[in-house]
Amino acid sequence: xxxxRYFIGIIFAFIFLINAGIMVGCWDQTEIEDLGxxxxxxxxxxxxAEGKEEEKKESERNLSxxxxxxxxxxxxxxxxxxxxxxxxxxxxxxxxxSNVASEGNTLFQIARQFSTMSSRLPYYKHLKAIxxxxxxxxxLNLEQLLNFFLRExxxxxxxxxxxxxxxxxxxxxxxxxxxxxxxLALLSLTENEKKTARxxxxxxxxxxxxxxxxxxxxLIPRVVTYGDSVQLAGAAFIKGKENTMIGWLGEEETExxxxxxxxxxxxxxxxxxxxxxxxxxxxxxxxxxxxxxxxEGEKISFVVEIESEGGLGEDWLISGDxxxxxxxxxxxxxxxEEIVSIIYDGLTKTQKEFKVDVAGFGKQLYVQYPEVxxxxxxxxDEYFSTVPVEVNVEIHVxxxxxxxxxxxxxx
Length: 411
Hints:
The chain is α/β, with parallel strands linked by helices. The chain contains 16 helices and twelve strands.
């Protein structure tokens, strides 16, 4: 929330400085944002009949290279609305943003086309998010697709990249409740990554560029629209070298990767007490993880060592006493087994089904056994799919909440 206020403050300051130096006059408030400040971009396949027909014609004209059409939606800041007074109902009298779409073969061409729709060229200095549709991510090389953003001098490297399940434009169309701009509402969700393990780590354009250049497989956060709301959970698999999406990682499988990466903090693990069959919830306070490669002759294997401290955030055991040794042992073991199960399920999806290393196993092999890495790096994802991985988890329940505490027992 604080970052969003800071960002809006920058927008206001920028608008003030521009307006101070612009000639005197009134702008038509029904026009597209006159300053051309863009905060979000969504990239889709053409949905209109005209766009699909044009794509077909271009493909027929040049069969040696299958051309593609792109529909790009850009979210402009409406400066008049950003500074407008609220209505009697407490809501802004005008939307603070405008979503404008255009079609073309390249992003550079499309960006220039926006000059025919606005009095100013698009201004990307404050671009915060790029949302790519699943259809685009599966059909195009993302390094080629994003070349425009990587070359454009106005672009910063901290732009967040996401993959949408369904139409990317839909994400920019969901009206925010607390924020002025849909993009800011989306970015506010990314600030919750420390509260849930089922959200993939933020991916910035600069870091994504490095991964693509290195030919590494990686994850991009998934965004889904549900009617009037947006959810940020799960991730898209991006296959190294090809730099295309090959599938989805579900929420629990994303949690598995976060455990391996040591990115779990403030999250919760739900399990069941074996004796009573009632629910237990473990709240993670701290977590440490280490990937240890082992090389014996020609054989490579890994051990993932995980240690976590936390507390019982909730349990449905009416007679459960957090100070009873037997109960605590059962609860700790149930939590440990649940975490191990989650991690192995995630490894099955990434390592066996999609055959990609998105958790940094190859990186650790390179660090500790560089000469071995040189032999396998060219086809590492395929090689990794056959490598044994052992997972060891140690849990320490340090906090118990108020239930069953000695102070309550004496009341």
